[in-house]
Structures are given as structure tokens and as C-alpha cells.
Amino acid sequence: MKPMTTFDTADDLSVRKQTIARHFANASDYDQHASIQQTVCQYLLDSIAHTKQSSVLEVGAGTGQMTRLLADHIQSQYWLINELCSEQSATLQSILPTADVMIGDAETIDLAENHSLIISANAVQWFDNPLSFVTQSAQRLQSGGQLVFSTFTPNNFLQIKTLTGQGLHYPDIDEWQLALDSDGFENIKLSIQRFDLPFPTPYAILKHMKLTGVSTNQTQVKSEDTQTFIWTKSRLQQFESDYWQHFSRKDETGQLMVNLTYEVLIVSAFKL
What we know:
single chain, alpha/beta, 10 helices, 9 strands, globular
């Protein structure tokens, strides 16, 4: 059967998901700036138990960082690649020409069942209900199938949250463990990797976040109590001043710099 590319229309996406898709569509140089995300993809690849699979589902493939690794290292009789942004469909199809590519919201569309491997790199945190990914995966995996994914911990972008009060809601490691236990997974492995990425200025950090599809505004915040965050000249000046005061350090040459913290949760589990 010829591979298919299936599109959900933009009208099928919630306003929040449309905004997220637009942010990533505008991040045209994503791969040049997403070095941490690429490193995480390698961690996920190393977590896959079997190089030969019957059916692989990738959720939230993005620009194809994980997809390329899968294409190079994993053999599968069937591939289903999901992504929110329609702009990525041709790229993903070119990476895995035999795959079916399904564009749409992974929380609401039918991504089939009986997969031997479900994998997702750096995408689950954008779900309205991230923990629901575990339940959905349990329904979509065959018995003995493996779930491998990465997401972020509550300490991710800690500096931004501290200074602006903005950020996604990230379940902690205990919540993920409970969700996996509750949905009948076994041989559960969870590990946390922390990366402190150096930048010359706080403004460079904001630029980096924008170039990797992240925005510090209310559309990305789960809490309904937080008001929309809008950057003004005075707010930006205060942000830079506070960042230097609280989160700066000297590098090995004595040059003053600032860090941005990525804290990643790597998960591997098997369906009973």
C-alpha cells in the first residue's frame, strides 16, 4: 500500500494548539539551535530495546530529529509518524518515504493500535494533559510493546519561571511513575538529565527560546489563573537586570555569562 500523508485541518485544532503549531512553524532554524533536543534524541534511541520492530509510532516528530535516527538505526514493517505542524509533512515523508505521516493533534486524532514501539521526543509537554499520553500509549501498544519518550521536569527553564512566572506545567517524576504503574506498564525506567546552557546575555536566551519554538506567554501556560504576559521595554530591562543579578557566573576565562537550565526526563517502559 502506498504511504499516505493525512492532514487534520487547522479548524480541528484548539486555539492553544494552533498557537503552538504557529510558534514552531516560525522557528525555521530550529535544528541549528536545538542541540539539547538532539542529545535527548540519542538518549531515546539508546533506550530502544529492539532494532527490529513490527510497527513504530512516533508522536510529535517536529523537524524530524528523532525520525532521522529511527530511519538510520531501526527497522520496522510499518511506520506511522505524527506531527502537529503541517509545514513539516514533506520533510518527514522525505526522511521515511515508506511511512504514513499523520498531521494533527496527537491527543485527539486516531493513531491506530497494536504498535510494537511508541516513541516521542520532546513533545509530550505540549499536551493539554501530558499524563494522558501514558494511557493513550497503553491503548495503542501491543502486549510486550515498548514506550520510550522524553519530556521536561518542573525545573526546566527554572530561571525564566522564577523571573517571569511563565512556563508550562510539567508533571514531576513521581506523577509519571504513578501514571505508568496505573496503566499496567512494567520494567519502568525513569532518569533525569540536566543541561545548563551558557549564553552571553539574557536577551540571547530569549532569542534562543524563540528560535526553538518556545514563547514566554500565556498561550503556553496551563494555569488558568495567570494573566497574559506581554513584553514591554521596561519589563525586558528589568528581566535582564534580574537575570544578571541572580543567574550569572564567570566562565573559565573570567567572562561573565548566564545559564538556561534544561532538565529532561527520559522514560522507557513496557506494556504487560
